Amino acid sequence: MAAKRIFIAGHEGMVGSAIVRQLQQEKGVELVTRTRRELDLVSQADVTTFFQQEKIDQVYLAAAKVGGIYANNEYPAEFIYQNLMIETNIIHQAYVGGVKKLLFLGSSCIYPKLAKQPMQESELLTGILESTNVPYAIAKIAGIKLCESYNRQYGVDYRSVMPTNLYGKNDNFHPENSHVIPAMMRRFHEAKLAGDQEVTVWGTGKPMREFLHVDDMAAASVFVMNLDNAMYQAHTEPMLSHINVGTGIDCTIRELAETMAKVVGFEGKLIFDGSKPDGTPRKLMEVTRLKRLGWSAGTSLEAGLERTYEWFVNAAESLRS
């Protein structure tokens, strides 16, 4: 029996590379990957040629332009344009190329700023989005609706998973364009090395956030992709087909900072700068649907941070050598 050819779009990113590691443990699969230099996912012509030339059985759509509050505020046009083009090109050409199964990876930012907590899948499109990442969120919502629409019209099986805040190996540790965990980890690490007496954290420290280790996200993605269709449909609806992925547990940014200081070994004082934006007051995913399907996260926040910090330190040392 021929191996199942699986295309991981965005395999060099944090989530895509974790999915690659997960799928490498599976039998009977042939992984298909392309770097950005080899395949421009924003280009309709390039994506069309790729699917015409490759016989793909499944697609994991993990490719996206991502960033934190600063990046979303500074580059809104890039965020909405590039993400819309990537999703539209891949989903449509996957259908044209005969791909029956696809998994689209979204984001918890699709939910309204003041969504009921924890956020159920049904909260989608029930209120105003958080202003700092509207372009990205709109693009991700469009991806969900693309999958639902192609399922309805063409009878394919394109599924969507909405992860909470992710972190782990291969995250972006840029000092300005990264998410809260990598930005904080780098800041604390550098402060420790410099012998600083204090570290300043953006915001008041009061917002609550949920964090999921990327290896758990990869495991959940493969789990949802491989679910029996009857079971998947029994727990979703035609116009509400996405599934939340998270731990179901959140913490304040202050608690995150305190845990980070412990993991990194920073013993100085924490200063919270209330003049910086806090973002959404709380973001906790309701993960009952996924648990009923049979999957739960297995990595605690502290354990995940320890694994991530170990990788970060080793990666930083390898760059210097």
TrEMBL record:
UniProt-listed Enzyme Commission number(s): 1.1.1.271
Single GO BP term: 'de novo' GDP-L-fucose biosynthetic process
Molecular function terms from GO: GDP-L-fucose synthase activity; isomerase activity; NADP+ binding
Catalytic activity: GDP-beta-L-fucose + NADP(+) = GDP-4-dehydro-alpha-D-rhamnose + NADPH + H(+)
Active site, per annotation: 136
Annotated positions for site Important for catalytic activity: 107, 109
Residue numbers binding substrate: 187, 202, 209, 278
EC category name: oxidoreductase
Keywords assigned: Isomerase, Multifunctional enzyme, NADP, Oxidoreductase
Pathway: Nucleotide-sugar biosynthesis; GDP-L-fucose biosynthesis via de novo pathway; GDP-L-fucose from GDP-alpha-D-mannose: step 2/2
Amino acids binding NADP(+): 10-16, 105-108, 140, 163-166, 179
Domain of life: Bacteria
Residues annotated as domain NAD-dependent epimerase/dehydratase: 6-230
Family statement drawn from the similarity comment of this UniProt entry: Belongs to the NAD(P)-dependent epimerase/dehydratase family. Fucose synthase subfamily.
Function noted in UniProt: Catalyzes the two-step NADP-dependent conversion of GDP-4-dehydro-6-deoxy-D-mannose to GDP-fucose, involving an epimerase and a reductase reaction.
Name the UniProt record assigns to this protein: GDP-L-fucose synthase
Gene transcribed to yield this protein: fcl
